[in-house]
Amino acid sequence: MKIAIVCYPTFGGSGVVATELGLALAKRGHEIHFVTYSQPVRLDQLSSNVRFHEVHVPEYPLFHYQPYELALSSKLVNVVKQFDIELLHVHYAIPHAYAGYMAKKMLAEEGINLPMVTTLHGTDITLVGNHPFYKPAVTFSINNSDIVTSVSKSLKEDTLKFFKIRNEIEVIPNFIDCSKYDNKAFTDCQREMMADNKEKIITHISNFRKVKRIDDVIKIFYEIQKEIDAKLMMVGEGPEKEMAEDLVDELNIADKVMFLGQSHEIDKILCFSDLFLLPSEKESFGLSALEAMVNGVAIISTNTGGLPEVNQNGISGYLSDVGDVQAMAANALKILENDETLEKFKNNARSVAEKFDIKNVMPLYEDIYQRALHTTL
Tell me, which GO biological process terms does this entry list (predicted)? Predict the structure, then answer.
């Protein structure tokens, strides 16, 4: 099957999932064409059946904001015609599903039927998509997709609550390729670059936006380090980073917190981590938690959105209400204070993550694709 995938090429969860999905499909013999404005960060190698097509948006003085949707839809039309694409899979409702629909209509004028699968990831529904300016376009795009999927039951429920949706929404969870995390070559001496042997390593990875409640991460760690020796690894960049650095200084724990910025060594950091903090205001799924779990890291998270579908309370970690710093710190100490308990939670986290292995999720997408193809024949 020849499939065009449209996604954001950044470190965000939707772009990571889309890229990993495309690479996995290519391994199964499908021809994959990524169409976006720059090469996706996880797309580290191209081949005869994995190609990247860059969307150029020419600058024109008439436009205050350059019309990416127009450039994307036109590029899609060209790629579909040039490579005989059979199916379009867009990740994120806006602007990708909207641009995909326009491409479908342009192609239909030439007698080409292109089925479109739209995957909803989170803020395209709960934040951006629900804004009054965009809501009509998002509703229209979802209702005019051939098949719609959502990465969690929670996101499906939010979509049906916020929008007047006619289409059925099918839940296909985010996934992880567990085989990539076996037989790690990392050594204990590399762990010592981050912390002493007696120190527990706590980690947070995100885009440092307000929704991630970065101040809660710092406050939870502050309570943890009062009781046990620990280091906090803060991985990522974003608007809340400066605030976090100021709070660390204010609490006088700068010697125990490392800000690592955007890192391509996420797996190495997680491999040596004991606990992962995710106190978000909202998470449609919690892909970063899943990536931590597959590395055998216990999770302390909120109980919002799709997180309870990923982090099993009392098994892979603990769930708490949004903003309940004291409860999250107390749960963290329950896990960390006893090495036997810590090891049990770490093993459980890996076991729970294996349920989301790509080998279990991939057939669900391939079934969706076949149905989309037969729907438009």
Answer: bacillithiol biosynthetic process
